[in-house]
């Protein structure tokens, strides 16, 4: 990739992030840029890291297992360690152990079954594994996540959600830090706003119910809708195409 292009795209993203934060009266430091690097070559990942991006999101365990050692080689150990490596794609329970080997944070914990398995596998760790709970805020059948499209009006859905969250919070080797969602696929980003707002409302409700836990993070917003997500309280935008250009 042309390095000038990468630098220009990053500058534009940073500018738009700042403008969106400002229009919502939020400090831009509250919003972390996560480079969604699926299909992106390790050399390009190292380039964007050299430009100051320190948080990466990968979708697949297998892909990360291959690419991260290559990025480590390019960046050197300390710069590699300074980066945060997040899983942002769906995680199958049978790959939970491998995911824990590769990633610092898991953004897509979407069932008690998966959480229990991760908790067992993390039992020997010095500190709990940071996770986000993935929530389906749009009701789209193709989306993963705990169902919350009807939050807060759908009482049955809400009861199921709260039961699951309570059980996950009780797992000692996981540390829930907040929520993640993938916005609905819509032509106009404005149409994704209700889903982002729902995630924030849900987070606020969970924080009120379980104040002893951390609920800081809202991982929401992608290339087409991140400014709207920031206006609705996003703390982590996951950007692929806006940084790297169209995926091949
Ligand atoms: C691919 C992906 C992104 C980034 O998507 P873009 O539209 O390229 O910004 C963010 N989050 C998840 C979960 C993804 O799979």
What's the structural blueprint in terms of helices and strands?
Elements: H1 3-23, E1 32-36, H2 42-50, E2 55-58, H3 61-75, H4 77-82, E3 84-87, H5 96-102, E4 105-109, H6 112-121, E5 129-136, E6 146-147, H7 155-169, E7 174-180, H8 193-209, E8 217-219, H9 226-231, E9 236-239, H10 241-244
Parallel strand pairs: 1-2, 1-9, 2-3, 3-4, 4-5, 5-6, 5-7, 7-8
Helix pairs in contact: 2-3
The chain binds pyridoxal-5'-phosphate (PLP).
Distance between the termini: 12 Å
Task: Let me know the average pLDDT.
Answer: 97
Uncertain residue segments: none
Backbone CA Rg = 18 Å
Helical content stands at 40-55%
How many helical elements? 10
Helix-strand makeup class: alpha/beta
Oligomer: single chain
What small molecules does this complex bind? pyridoxal-5'-phosphate
Order of helices and strands: HEHEHHEHEHEEHEHEHEH
Indicate the overall shape: globular
Outline the biggest β-sheet: 9 strands, parallel
β-sheet strand percentage: 15-25%
Query: What's the count of strands?
Result: 9
Plain-language structure description:
Helix 2 packs across helix 3 (61-75). The chain has helices at residues 3-23, 42-50, 61-75, 77-82, 96-102, 112-121, 155-169, 193-209, 226-231, 241-244, and strands spanning 32-36, 55-58, 84-87, 105-109, 129-136, 146-147, 174-180, 217-219, 236-239. It is of the alpha/beta class. Strand 3 (84-87), helix 5 and strand 4 (105-109) form a beta-alpha-beta unit. Strands 1, 2, 3, 4, 5, 6, 7, 8 and 9 form a 9-stranded parallel sheet that branches. The structure holds pyridoxal-5'-phosphate. Pyridoxal-5'-phosphate is lined by residues 36, 38, 59, 88-89, 182, 222-224, 238-242.
